[in-house]
Amino acid sequence: MRPEARLSLKNAAVECALGRLLPTGGTTIDRAMRYAVIPGGKRFRPLLLLAAGGCFGARLGLLLPFACALELIHCYSLVHDDLPAMDDDDLRRGRPSCHRAFGEAAAILAGDGLLTLAFETMAAARVPNSLLAAKQEAMRAVGGRAGVRGMIGGQWLDISLVPEKASRRALDVINSKKTGALILGAVEAGALLGRAGAADRQAMADYGKNIGLAFQVRDDILDSGGGAAGGRPARPDQTALYGLAGSRARLTRLVGEAVGAIDRFKERGAELRYLAGLLLDAGRRAQDA
Question: Fewer beta carbons under 10 A from the terminal one: N or C of the chain?
Answer without folding.
Answer: C
